[in-house]
Specification:
alpha+beta, Rossmann fold, 6-stranded antiparallel sheet, 28 helices, 17 strands
């Protein structure tokens, strides 16, 4: 787990860009605190910041060049099935200089060319330079677990693991207005654009090929759509157990200390249970919030740990420490990202890193197997369509009750109102609404004209096109693989763990598990009111029954309370002043003022999340260039 960056030019590079690459590498220091190196390779300069996980020796430091000195690799990620490929390459006569997975990756490329990408079970962003043919291959893993930003202009390519690193290069900084629109719809920048105009994210499963003849972008892997196959619950359960068990086993390979996140929910409990079968002294970790009992679920993790027999640690985090982390998160974010659950993920990563360098996590299961509230809502929407007009009659009564995420009752009222509103929409628009924080109409009122939402709307409409033909949980999961996973969940895990130099591995995103999930009939995912039903069938007898029956809560923080009290100064300070907002020429001050007033009402809805998106954006705006 590391960070990579580099430059390629179709003409020759001079010495001056080396300084830029050095700055870009140092911007990745938290991703790779163990070693930072740069290599000038003619038309290409590669930089690498290393977090040592496999083969801790300096021989395995990167950029790494093969014995012939023709090929050089800079690799961010892990290659979990590298040992089996190493054995095969040794049988072919290949001689290795290290024990690293990086060198095996390079050897596979030397032997098989670009076809080697499909042989990798793991996550990665990688750059490989061939000095003989003066070509560069840059590639990203299947589902976008590892980030890769790039910019190209006039025959030059710049790339980096993080936006802050890419901005070390002489790149124009103009806000992408369509990405800004998408950001305020979802609270993250969706798709393959970035907040900076002409800076792109390499698509999951994408590759860049650069040569003296030019630069091209293609896909080496196509994210699977949903196509259900006939199977029985028994057969599917057995197959899932086998696939996930092997995925966990592969991800236990490490030359440093390793443990598991354990929240006590379905997904992390399954991963911890499987890991314990292969690692007798498994350590598990979670955080508790003793000052916020409504958000504290640490007791559930402790019960699961006791049941499966792990060495468990709960990190108790008080209000003061929790609030301090808010500023750490704001400072580390280099592209606006306003999923507030990033805050507890950051804390968990910080505390876990004090004991281990690698942690397994249950992330990804919700998107694959129908674990979110919205998935159950979609299943109910399919059943309740005949009753939508009758249910709509409840809307005036619901307006009489408080709606927020701060209590069980008010959250249920909020969900019910959102559900009834969604019933009146077509299947594709329903998904778009339930996958967002703000509606396009609300964002249009927030942003000043001219509003450019063309690229975002094209992306979201193409994404949801299959739902216009078949509203199924499988098609919703397929959309989540393209929107939610690479836009929200994976960046959250990557950024927050890397900010603490912790590697997090996600067994549910083993490509075999993902492709298996895309072949499951809907009833194996949501059965009546049971979400992720197939997971209960496969693992229910190994874990406490409460794991599968208690309500899903999520990794939430008391955002509304904070904004009214401890963090109120963030929405009443300079960044929200009328003069500053008008100077930006981006937002309607009256729309922001309305949100601030809404915060004081009982009808909160998602107002705290909308204000948090503004706080994050304003902090980013001032840090990365006050004159954007």
């Amino acid at each position: 787990m590391c960070g990579i960056t580099g430059i390629y030019s179709t003409s020759n590079l001079g010495q001056d860009p080396v300084k830029d690459v050095n700055r870009a590498v140092m911007a990745l220091y938290r991703r790779g605190p163990d070693c930072q190196q740069v290599k000038h390779l003619g038309k290409c300069i590669l930089g690498h910041a290393r977090l040592s996980i496999i083969d801790l020796s300096t021989n395995a430091s990167q950029p790494l060049t093969d014995a012939s000195e023709r090929y050089t690799i800079a690799f961010n990620g892990e290659f979990f099935n590298y040992k089996e490929h190493r054995i095969r390459l040794l049988e072919k006569g290949y001689r290795f200089l290290t024990n690293s997975d990086t060198e095996v990756f390079l050897a596979l490329y030397i032997t098989y060319g670009e076809k080697c990408l499909s042989m990798i079970n793991g996550f990665f962003a990688v750059a490989i330079y061939d000095s003989l043919h003066q070509t560069l291959l840059v590639a990203r893993d299947r589902y976008g677990e590892k980030p890769l930003y790039f910019y190209q202009s006039n025959g030059e390519l710049y790339f980096a693991s993080e936006l802050k690193s890419l901005l070390s290069y002489p790149i124009p900084r103009q806000i992408d207005r369509s990405s800004l629109f998408g950001y305020f719809v979802h609270n993250y920048v969706p798709g393959n654009d970035s907040i900076i105009e002409n800076v792109k994210k390499l698509p999951p499963g994408g590759k860049i090929k650069a040569s003296p003849q030019g630069i091209t972008i293609e896909n080496w892997y196509e994210i699977p759509g949903w196509l259900a196959e006939k199977t029985s619950p028994q057969e599917a359960s057995q197959q899932l157990y086998s696939l996930l068990d092997d995925a966990v086993k592969l991800r236990l390979e490490s030359d440093v200390r390793l443990g598991c996140f354990l929240s006590g929910g379905v997904d992390s409990s399954i991963i911890a249970y499987l890991a314990k079968q292969h690692k007798s002294n498994l350590m598990t970790f979670n955080i508790g919030f003793p000052d916020q009992p409504y958000f504290d679920e640490s007791r559930f993790a402790q019960e699961v740990s006791k049941h499966i027999g792990t060495q468990h640690t709960t990190f108790g985090i008080g209000n003061h420490a929790l609030l301090e982390t808010v500023y750490d998160v704001l400072e580390y974010i280099d592209e606006p990202f306003a999923d507030s659950s990033a805050i507890p993920v950051n804390i968990l990563s910080r505390e876990t890193r004090k004991l281990v360098t690698v942690a397994l996590s249950g992330d990804g299961a919700d998107e694959l197997f129908g674990g979110y509230r919205k998935h159950l809502a979609h299943a109910r929407a399919i059943r309740f369509q005949p009753y939508r007009n009758a249910l709509a009659l409840l809307t005036p009564f619901l307006k009489l009750f408080p709606k927020s995420r701060n209590s069980f009752f008010s959250d249920k009222v909020r969900q019910l109102e959102k559900f009834i509103t969604g019933l009146s929409l077509s299947a594709d628009k329903r998904y778009q609404r339930w996958a967002s924080i703000s509606s396009p109409e609300e964002v249009s009122k927030l942003l000043l004209p001219p509003i450019n939402s063309q690229s975002y709307l094209k992306f979201i409409n193409e994404l949801t096109l299959p739902l216009t033909k078949h509203e199924t949980i499988g098609n919703i999961n397929a959309a989540d693989l393209i929107l939610v996973l690479p836009g929200d969940m994976l960046p959250k895990v990557d950024r927050m763990s890397m900010s603490r130099s912790l590697e997090v591995r996600l067994p549910f995103l083993d490509y075999r598990v993902v492709e298996f999930s895309m072949k499951l009939p809907d009833y194996l995912k949501i059965n009546r009111n049971q979400r992720k039903w197939i997971l209960q069938q496969a693992f229910g007898k190994f874990l406490p029954s409460e794991v599968f029956t208690r309500p899903k809560k999520g990794f939430e923080v008391p955002l509304a309370y904070w904004l009214k009290h401890d963090l109120n100064h963030l929405i009443n300070g300079e960044n929200f002043s009328k003069d500053f907002i008008e100077s930006q020429e981006l937002f309607s001050y009256s729309a922001i003022d309305s949100l601030k007033k809404q915060l004081q009402s009982s009808q909160l809805g998602d107002t705290p999340a909308k204000l948090w998106a503004l706080i994050v954006f304003q902090h980013w705006y001032k840090k990365y260039n006050p004159h954007l």
